[in-house]
């Protein structure tokens, strides 16, 4: 009898051990605790960075086992360089000629998601003139002929927007004197002092200038063209680490959905005010200014891929891209598609 009891206890022990083994094997299945990973992020303190601010503030990246390490930049080009070189995992900034030139030269950098578009009805970037110009009746795009127009730098999103706006009225970049001033703050100072007659600016800076009274909006870019202004970029190593990449994008899409539903879907209630407050915290802009210029961002963070080809063609036509480039080399939304599928399974 003791022998039978011993065998029975041994059998129970084996079953328990087997169950524990199965539980351990299950740690790699969906829903199990994930390994914590660090993600370095290069980003600008702009309203269009709202989903990233939301994700950090509400803990969406932490939910995915990611520790976000933001690095604050002042311009788009250095972010592209830092991302392509692998100094950061993720870049969040404007899509520029320098990005396309790096890609055509063989540097690996992938635009994986939307970070802000120019879209009709959603003021984000604008062409502005001095109050003096406005008071003289020069209130239209075509009135810029022969005038000095400030942009950040050649090949920038501001350069692109200026060119496209001029073309919409039968003009070209050759019809104005372009003044590259590197920084947005320098553009604002030059407009205020009259060093330039006009500038391209983005929010919340457009509202700041209007509020200060030294500049007037001639045209909102989104009212003239649909344009994928900025994107989320992944470094080569980030693209290879699909687990980390998809986790990041799941958190990002959760953030874009929160932003879209709170701000763009017409709720304009408690959640909208929360989003405005989060943006104010990270950008330092006053709440009243932020409310005036909340940009359009796709609810699922989906990139307007067809516009990437349009941009490449424009930059090539204006001799700002050195070599031909296939849009598929820089735009890769496969990981975003996977992230959305995984999110929607729950």
Structural notes for this entry:
The protein has 346 residues and is an alpha/beta fold. It has 2 domains: 37-117 and 227-345, 3-Layer(aba) Sandwich (D-Maltodextrin-Binding Protein, domain 2); 125-224, D-Maltodextrin-Binding Protein, domain 2 (3-Layer(aba) Sandwich), CATH 3.40.190.10. It has 17 helices and 10 strands. The chain has a 5-stranded mixed sheet. It has a 5-stranded mixed sheet with strand order 7-6-8-5-9, with helices on both faces. Helix 2 crosses helix 12, helix 2 crosses helix 13 and helix 12 packs across helix 13. The model is unreliable at 14-32 (pLDDT under 50).
Outline:
This protein folds into two domains: 37-117 and 227-345, 3-Layer(aba) Sandwich (D-Maltodextrin-Binding Protein, domain 2); 125-224, D-Maltodextrin-Binding Protein, domain 2, CATH 3.40.190. Helices cover 49% and strands 18% of the residues.
Q: Strands of the biggest beta sheet: in what spatial order?
A: 2-1-3-10-4
Radius of gyration equals: 25 Å
> What is the general shape?
globular
CATH architecture of the largest domain: 3-Layer(aba) Sandwich
Observed structural traits:
single chain; 346 residues; alpha/beta; D-Maltodextrin-Binding Protein, domain 2; 5-stranded mixed beta sheet; 17 helices; globular
